[in-house]
Amino acid sequence: MDVKEINVLVLAYLGDTIYENYVRKYLILKKIGNVDKLQKEAIKYVSAKSQANYLLEMIDKGFFTEEELAVIKRARNYKTTSHPKNCDIVTYKYATGLECLIGYLDFLSKRERIDEIMNFILK
User: Fold this and answer.
1) Is the Cβ–Cβ distance between 26 and 44 less than 8 Å?
2) Which of the residue ranges 3-17, 42-56, 79-93, 94-108 would you say has the lowest mean pLDDT?
3) Which of 11, 52, 82, 101 meets the CB 3.0–4.6 Å disulfide criterion with 94?
4) Residue 67: CB partners within 8 Å, gap ≥ 6?
């Protein structure tokens, strides 16, 4: 199956799980041993607002290739009217773009590139 034929929301669904797994491992390695504290810290990374902000920062710094930007734009421009109550549609679409890119890269087995993205975000 060609990854470009997969619905961007399906790629974002996959990317979301990968993204959250990186964040959870990062926080556990910081020796946060309390689940409530882990959850509160995770929100700083996994909220749509945070994801959108990280994505925009990376775009501003020229972090992405043209191919990656095309994937992000494809997800961002996907026609949808639903979004979480706690953020606006534009923020949600940028967050979806980041998640979609991670899912896309995973399908291409580009784990090193996902590592680079997540290392940028988790600094």
Assistant:
1) no
2) 79-93
3) 52
4) none
Is 16 catalytic? The answer is yes
DSSP state of 5: G
pTM above 0.85, yes or no: yes
Number of folded domains that form the chain: 1
- Type of residue found at 39: Q
CATH code, domain carrying 101: 1.10.1520.10
Nearest to 50 by CA among 1, 95, 115: 95
> Catalytic: which of 16, 60, 88, 106?
16
**Which residue segment(s) compose the domain that 88 sits in?**
3-122
Mean pLDDT over each residue of the chain, to the nearest integer: 93
